[in-house]
Amino acid sequence: MGHFTNILRYAKPYKKYALGHIIANVFYALFGTLSFIALKPMLDVIFDKEKVVPKAIPEYTGLDNIKDFAADYLNYQMDAFTGGDKAKALVFVIGLIILMFILKNIAGYLANYFLVFLRNGVIRDIRNKVYKKTVDLPLSFFSEQRKGDIIARVTGDVNDLQYSFLPVLEIIIREPLTILFTIIAMLYISTQLTLFVFIFIPIMSFIISRIGKSLKRKSGRVQKEQGIFLSTLEETLTGLRIIKGFNAEKIFNDRFQESTNRFYNFSNKLLNRKNLASPTSEVLGIFMISGILWYGGNLILSGDPGTSLDGSTFLVYLGLSYQILTPAKAITRGVYNIKKGGAAAERIQEILDTPNPIKDRPNAIEKTGFDKNIEFKNISFKYDDEYVLKDFSLTIPKGETVALVGQSGSGKSTIANLITRFYHVNQGEILIDGKNINDLTTSSLRQQLGIVTQDAILFNDSIANNLKLGKQNATENDIIEALEIANAWEFVKDLPEGIETNIGDAGNKLSGGQKQRLSIARAVLKSPPIMILDEATSALDTESERVVQVALENMMKNRTSIVIAHRLSTIQNADNIVVLSKGEIVEQGKHSELITKNGTYKKLVEMQSLG
User: Fold this and answer.
1) Model pTM?
2) Are 337 and 165 in contact (CB under 8 A)?
3) Residues 139-156: pLDDT tens digits?
4) CATH number, residue 423
5) What is the pairing mode between strands 576-581 and 560-564?
6) Contact 426, 388 (CB under 8 A)
């Protein structure tokens, strides 16, 4: 129930709908009970039972005689309306029954009307919160998670809440109140018979709880498996070119089918267990009704005046006792749904409760500009067990271009991940203008940075909207100017809709060089004082590299740049080249100085020349 309580917290903004829902359900339960009680005078007329009609309007004297007061008042009003005519009396009570059922259904509609706003509002807020938390979490979280599983939680698990947990809101008030009002009416009709009925309630509860015990575990397996086949689907769509190129369709098809087969088996077990709820409660209900027929029939046949039970009253009692079955079945389904929804709520709560180490500190500073330098001060960092940077120190004055070179795994890209606060350093500190970046707000820090990565990450949108990610208020002239600096305007101007052209999923309507130039234009439009270029040309062919390199040089003018380089020919004009090996600086200086040293850098240059 803890997860159910957590979900209910999201209902607070919709208190007015919840209140309307509760009030409407109170009337639904009340009119539902009264509609059965109203059957008694009709049966009395049909069975030609003589009634004592009061001479004056009965007076209410308290709860002790409410039963007699209600009967006398109804008899008085019926006699006043019909003048003792039994045909008119029958029409009167039938009209009364119709009125009760109409009022009951109006109340039921209003309850559902309010529930729609409550339920859909809660689902929207949960989905939004899960998405926001997903975006806020650090990259390290996603390196350990399947994308498909995250998608399954935001979509499938939230939908499970909608169809498992939240329908329970409907029965929290309505069904218990229906049972309560019905039992009160039954107690007034016959205390003995009602106490006999109570024998069945703990038996029914025990059997139902035993059936539903493993439902949460089975549901958790279903939802986990859904995450697995969604991950396979996501990987397939992302890597379809490779899958086809390596004739690996069968491998991925088999993997997907294995997962969906497990999902099929788990779902069958889950739904078959869930489907036991209705027939079980139905059978138990029939046993209860049979017991009432036997015990109540004996009470009537005994002729004991103390039972105050006659034929018409007993039929009304049977109707009331049968009415308990419907809400009892609904509550049973609700209990099953809570157990099933508990697994979905737990998976959603896992994301919401995941601690975020990359959070702004209290009183974090808003950084509004870049004035002096960037300083890496005795930095050590590890992703898992082994350090990829060891006691790394480097100062980058404003306006200089620093290139980081070295073999794969030497720690170059890690430096970009640390200065952008995608990860936190384990030891040491990174300072911008003498301020530790951990003391700055994350948004203001990243506002000072422009990033161009090896993979040109673009979105299924227009060129203009892709570029405006970092500057929402950019004008059309601003966008064109950024495209010109990035050498991209030459091809954008020839597109059918210019900057409003949609570039497709991940920009797949463009070539690699074109995508990379748009990434550069996006960074240029943001116009940050510090640029981080993470192997921005390594994935390009020679011709595209030349064009992109010119674009990069245009972009780096009058800016501080950190260039992570794979192709050393692109960084020969850097103010400082830092050579890394196994997370440590082994050489640094200008290109000509490092060549003269005849050390690691020269070997790297010679290897690329030979290549």
Assistant:
1) 0.70
2) yes
3) 777 777 777 778 778 777
4) 3.40.50.300
5) unpaired
6) no
